[in-house]
Amino acid sequence: MGKCKFCGERAGWFRKEHKACREKHQMGQTLARDKVRDAILEDQDYNSMNSALDEIAGAHFLRPDQIQRLKVLGFNEAVDHALDDHLLSAEEEKLFGKFLSESGLSKSELNTDGKVNRLVQAAALRDLSEGKIPTDRLTVNMHLPFNFQKSEELIWVFADVEFYEQRTRTEFTGGHQGVSFRVTKGVYYRTGSFRGRPIKVEEMRYIDTGVAAITTRHFYFSSSSKNFRTRIDRIVTLDPYEDGIGMQKEGVSSRPQIFKNVDGWFTYNVISHLNQL
């Protein structure tokens, strides 16, 4: 006879859990997640929060590793709530800073879903909106293949960026005009000429994958086959997407470009603010 994986009591033939225990376990996950979220947003004492989580864990069959994961999920919900208006106030930043230092979780653990990055980006945008350069917001843990100028400061870096550029190719449409007649069995001869006409077709072509960076003066891209920088004040169009950004710099020969795996909303706002400083 099987035992319930939650309470350890007999569950019946071919059963591994009681329905009531499973529901109690699921309710405990919700309670723990909500407790962490509210503790952050309401600036509650974290010793009291941890005591409450211990009680929830004991009553709802939650393991320590599950409580740690629920702390991350509660943190994620708190970030989403704070950034619902796309702004992060100085007071909200202090609340999250307190949790980061007292939660017992590392930044990498809390950044599993990119929420720590979102907080840093929101704080950087607040700096820019106040006319400040956010030079101390970003921590870079990788080699950057860029030769930055002395007069510029690094704001953000994106890895694994797919670079696309609009290219033009020529296609011919049309057909032959004329007649065909048989020369001998199985052999035909056609007279006439090709009356096709060339058509220019625009397409967005994948170029390479590399690293992109935003500084106070330039947008940089570097890969094994393509390396360039574009002055911020020469970018004439910006199109933010859910998973990237499209841009085009001034110049008759310039082509529209798309950078995928870039935070389009953040990049759009950074460049817009930089052009107003």
Helices and strands, with pairings:
Blueprint: E1 2-3, E2 10-12, H1 19-41, H2 46-59, H3 64-82, H4 90-102, H5 107-110, H6 115-129, E3 154-173, E4 176-177, E5 180-184, E6 187-190, E7 193-194, E8 197-215, E9 218-222, E10 227-231, E11 235-241, E12 244-249, E13 257-260, H7 264-274
Antiparallel strand pairs: 1-2, 3-8, 3-13, 4-7, 5-6, 8-9, 9-10, 11-12, 12-13
Helix pairs in contact: 1-2, 1-3, 3-6, 6-7
Structure report:
36% of the residues lie in helices and 30% in strands. With 277 residues, the protein is an alpha+beta fold. The chain folds into 2 domains: 2-129, no CATH class; 154-274, PH-domain like, CATH 2.30.29.30. Helix 1 runs antiparallel to helix 2, helix 3 runs parallel beside helix 6 and helix 6 (115-129) runs parallel beside helix 7. The longest helix has 23 residues, at 19-41. The radius of gyration is 29 Å and the shape is flat.
